[in-house]
Hints:
Blueprint: H1 13-34, H2 44-61, H3 65-78, H4 83-95, H5 99-112, H6 117-129, H7 133-146, H8 151-163, H9 167-181, H10 185-197, H11 201-214, H12 219-231, H13 235-248, H14 253-265, H15 269-281, H16 287-303, H17 308-324, H18 329-341, H19 345-358, H20 363-375, H21 379-392, H22 397-409, H23 413-425, H24 430-446, H25 450-463, H26 468-481, H27 485-498, H28 503-515, H29 519-531, H30 537-549, H31 553-566, H32 573-577
Helix pairs in contact: 1-2, 2-3, 3-4, 4-5, 4-6, 5-6, 6-7, 7-8, 8-9, 9-10, 10-11, 11-12, 12-13, 12-14, 13-14, 14-15, 14-16, 15-17, 16-17, 16-18, 17-18, 18-19, 18-20, 19-20, 20-21, 20-22, 21-22, 22-23, 22-24, 23-24, 24-25, 24-26, 25-26, 26-27, 26-28, 27-28, 28-29, 29-30, 30-31
Amino acid sequence: MNLSxxxxxxxxxxxxxxxxMKYYLNIFFAVLFVIPVYGQVQTQEELSGKSAYIxxxxxxxxxxxxxxxxxxxxxxxxxxxxTGIDYALxxxxxxxxxxxxxxxxxxxxxxxxxxxxxxxxxxxxxxRTAGQNEATLRELNTLLDYHxxxxxxxxxxxxxxxxxxxxxxxxxxxxxxxKLRGADPxxxxxxxxxxxxxxxxxxxxxxxxxxxxxxPDNLEMLNLLGEYYVNTGRTEKATETLNDALTxxxxxxxxxxxxxxxxxxxxxxxxxxxxxxxxxxxxxxEAEDKMNIARFLYSRIQNDPQNIQLRVETxxxxxxxxxxxxxxxxxxxxxxxxxxxxxQSEKALENLERANELLPQDEIAWRQRxxxxxxxxxxxxxxxxxxxxxxxVPEDAFIQFFVGSAYMLLDQNDQAEQWLSNAVxxxxxxxxxxxxxSTLGDTRANIGKHEESDEAYxxxxxxxxxxxxxxxxxxxxxxxRGENLERAKELALKAIEVNPExxxxxxxxxxxxxxxxxxDRAQRFIKASIDTGESSAEVFEHMGDVYEKLGDLDKAxxxxxxxxxxxxxxxxxxxxxx
Length: 578
């Protein structure tokens, strides 16, 4: 069970007390140095030492640790018998991560005042940070000899045992603390973690139940206990615990999520949906809390996308969310993402449009909307919406890319080149940068800028050497031009290694072999493309061209006729047929 997400707010007594002690030491030494003993004259060294110490402590409090170190060393030279300076130097070296020197001065402070609890705790912390386990435990036990039953020392000893994997010894020490202080939640929590590490779930749960008795209104603890009951198969106890949490605060999002999770695991779809819809519809709750609920259901449907009942309840919650929080942009973005993934295009576009209105700087909603428009082949609308998006999010590589791609598919390649050129200059991860360069290469090829096109393809492959689409398109353009055919063959063959069933890729390999006058191989690869059942009219034409070269004009004519039937705009085929 992963408990890292639980953040406990029990007071950390040790750090608070040590901070108070640091303040106490500052005041103590300031008073000691400023007010001389009656009738005693301070020497120049003492005055210089006092000044250096005060400045050093000021530098320490300002986290100027190197300056503090220099000033405190100066103070130590002038006031060699001032034990508190050793303590301050140990703390300073610890902050500088100079553990050997920290240990030296910490040991000096302890040797000067063996019964000083705070001096020894500082030395213990230094040893523990340095990983000196035996020294840490020795000093802790020595501290307990001077201060039997001291909470700070016992707690640190238990914590040290825990860090060293001595969970049984840690719990024995914690039991000593509990005898002295009673049911302290922070102590019981450490015992819980120890029992969890020892894989003794019943004892772990027992500690949580004791915390529950000591602090019954602690919702974090109740949720943790509920989750632990779920993970140990005690669903009824989990449900009872979470209902107890909701009795104490009916609007606690985490308790609702955990209880709904139990209902979903038990396939009680209506119960889960009703529980969460009622929460989402509550006008007194913050929109951010409702967002956590919506994200929870969204993640569940992503893990189980074919579950119709879960989809129904998810849609109820999302629709209720957007209705009750009609001015909360993230609700519409999330709803839009959901409807995109469930292929409900109209509802997705409706929600994403509202998200764009409410949060024009939300690039995610713009990207989702543009990508959906592209998938629906609404290229002109993609351009219009994309331009609005670029005004609100001016340097987004995805937005620039979608607009450029839409222009290319509208056969407006000059505008496409402009937008795609902007896209490659915008920040993007390497694989997506490769996609942009590949598309830019396609666009430049369309307008006859062959040298620039080749450069774009090479950059695409530099950013992502496995970009099979770039390999194929680059190879095909080289083959059409009849240039650098060996490079074209290398790229085309590598592309079908990555995607061996792709009809277009198989045709490209065949066409490269055609240009290399290896007609037998050309015929075999183009036939493999046709056999996939996904070939285009262009592939049929290529097969006719191959049979022409092989001297079988009847088969050539048959394939050209098939190509013309598939695409009547290829009027040039009539000449070949005639």
